[in-house]
Amino acid sequence: MRGKLLIIGFGPGSFQHITERAREALQESDVIIGYNTYVDLIRGLLTDQEIVRTGMTEEVSRAIEAVRQAELGKKVAVISSGDAGVYGMAGLVYEVLVQKGWREADGVEVEVIPGISAINSCASLLGAPVMHDACTISLSDHLTPWELIARRIEAAGMGDFIVALYNPRSGKRTRQIVEAQQILLKYRPADTPVGLVKSAYRDRQSVVLTTLGEMLDHDIGMLTTVLIGNTSTFVYDGKMITPRGYQRKYTLDKAEQPIRANERLKEEHEPWALHGGVSERKKETTQALAQQAVAMLAERGLLQTKIIEPNTNNPYDAMPAILEIAVSPGVGNKKLSARQMTALMTAAGAEGEIEYTPHHYVLLRVMTKEPEQIVSQLEQAGLLVQPIGDVVQVKACDFCNGEKSQSIPEADEIAERFAGLTVPKELKIGFAGCAMACYGSVHEDIAVIYRRGKFDLFLGGKTIGRNAHAAQPVAEGIPADELVDTVGRVLAEYKEKGHPDERFHKFFKRIGSVAGYHHNEHVPAVTVDTVCGD
Ligand code: SF4
């Protein structure tokens, strides 16, 4: 009969954290082979299986014995704590098989059964520290030269990986954890959060939250996993948390803002994200009910506790932010002066980026703790600074280098009133200083075209894609004193009734009528005057 090797990872050690398949595999085995401590941990799940147990450093002999017994036709379980494929027995068993010329087609059957590795079980006890790129490094130099391990720690530090150190220290091996700390301190601050978890989900479990600088003041042994945060990891209310987005984004500190990091978890912004069943509205309802209950108890004299104000410290506030802003020389102006270029370069510094875009502005992206100061310096240089994201942006032609300047006041007022307004999806208003409508204004979401002293309004353009199309002409001859309010009514309706992420042209089509202007599937051609630009 063909034998079978069942290489089982049984997780941290508690029965609740062993997978169903691992339990079945133990039951169907004839022989259980494992390290003494591991056999003791799962003994309660065994019935009459033969047990082969050995000491700690005898992994190779266990693997050889397992293969030998399987070749006799038995079902043999080789057990590892955590995951058998992560510093476990799976690799060793395969190495023994390879040496024997084993082939899957006609050799003993092999099944590797996954378990929960220490990085996962320890992370769950600490909070959510492994929310970003992470690596595991074993500090045991029993089988790996220390120089190689040190190089890997160096690389992890350089790459800002969250690091889980396995086998950090033993009775004889005490130097490695000290060197590991020194290497990582070159790349991240001493107050970087560190979790020390010993015997996760076992009887003598211990969880300590400390810092990279102070971690050696605590007990660290062979059963400890050391979880070191990256430069974004923070501690909040005793929990070690690494933000999933690596850095928060900051645009402009206006009353209306595109999404900020602490708003990301709202359902409308990330409909796919988990919210623990608590939306903002539900939270408000829950708080209101709790307040009612407190008031009721107080009325009856049953409340003798004081109300503790919630901790409002936002850990994001201490972190540098990536400032992303649209910068241009003005709504209608397309020329940058040398002074403005210098201000831009100074704002970007050595590490920032200035990206040329097709939207009549450059995108400045810079990491900073002083976003307000950068914005103020750019504005002092006469630059127009606008937020980016799901906001209104105003694009205008250059009014023939200012020669056709009649409608510039209205363009400026529209920018003043609406640029930066949060809307369901980024929206551009194209403004043209005459009927030539340069700079592609009629392809924008909303187009305003100055003609013969009044304004024409176009709605629902689609700038890009194979199905790009011009906006529909919905009104001609709007007087100057009605223009801004007219545009305002369109934006207000979109803001109120648009679905999150719904582009304006789709919204216009879905809703059929915006601010009294009707959507038309078949748009009649616009009659163009023969006089250029009039
Ligand atoms: S021709 Fe008209 S649309 Fe073009 S830049 Fe001059 S004013 Fe603007």
TrEMBL record:
What would you give as a GO molecular function for this chain, any one? heme binding
> What does the record give as its pathway?
Cofactor biosynthesis; adenosylcobalamin biosynthesis
* Limits of the Tetrapyrrole methylase domain: 4-215
Keyword Heme present in the record's keywords: the answer is no
Keywords from UniProt, A to Z, are: Cobalamin biosynthesis, Iron, Iron-sulfur, Metal-binding, Methyltransferase, S-adenosyl-L-methionine, Transferase
Name the Pfam families on file.
Answer: NIR_SIR (PF01077), TP_methylase (PF00590)
Positions of the Nitrite/sulphite reductase 4Fe-4S domain: 412-512
Protein name per Swiss-Prot or TrEMBL = Precorrin-3B C(17)-methyltransferase
UniProt organism field:
Tumebacillus avium
